[in-house]
Design brief:
Elements: H1 4-12, E1 17-22, E2 25-33, E3 37-43, E4 48-54, H2 55-65, H3 73-88, E5 97-102, E6 106-115, E7 118-128, H4 131-172, H5 189-204, H6 215-238, H7 244-257, H8 262-276, H9 286-295
Antiparallel strand pairs: 1-2, 2-3, 3-4, 4-7, 5-6, 6-7
Amino acid sequence: MESTEDLESRLLLQPWTSVCFAESTKLMAKAWFGDAGYALLLSDLTNMWYEKADTEVIQQRSKELNKRLTARASSFLNHLCSLMCPLLEGENNSSTSFSCQLSPSTLTLHVKSELLGLPFYWDFHCSAAPVEMMSCHLVRPLMAMSLALQSQVRELASLLLQKDAEIEDFRESGAVLSRERLKTEPFKEESFLQTFEAEILPQACCLGDGYLFTSNLKQLYMSVTQQQAKAVCKRHREGDCESPEHASSQDHAQGAADLPTEEDKIASQSAAVQCVQDTVVPASQAQKVQLPIAKTKRKKAKGLFG
């Protein structure tokens, strides 16, 4: 059976989802329902609210809100999961209604549905989340994501410049483009960045639409949090920290204080590659693999010109 600590670690690995409880109430949410309870985290990018409930809390609250229903805590957990999962996946369930009351210090999410033909009510009582949790679930992952995406953009820009040089070499050799509509202008990074800042960036900064994480960004977020969880587990195994809470707080403080130095950029590039391709090379083959990769010359593409 999962412990309450497992709930928190599982919650960290869940992606953020935009939810709308009313026209004026748009929040980001993530949740995890396990055997021992649930953990729920919500944020409006200004405040963050959190609740962790074990089986004892669930049993007691169910007696207060649903006096006509008698069931095990696991049954209520399964039903709550079936109600919340469609919400977090952006699906509407006409038989379930949600309403939200929030303040900077508290948030109450009211749920009204049915269970076995009887009315079912539930209240999620969330209190203000600590600063460490906001850093763990938002600040540090978003910083790591931005560094990974920046490294990806630089790599793509480098590949475009190489492709332009390759195409120019073909043209100087007398190659002719078979279809004129496929002709492209040479890539100019400075012009690209100017267009990006003038046209694309203003659209990306419109956070009010409630759609903050696309499917690709959700996957990148989960990859980043997985790497963070692995780093914390490694510290625990090596015995560098006195307790898991101490390790987590140290990891949060270090991540928030570190600036993107050259070593950080190199590390973020390695992390981004590992997120996209989870390929493990045996230690005995590491030197054999690295040397050919460093000396391999890029082959010219075939079939670009007729």
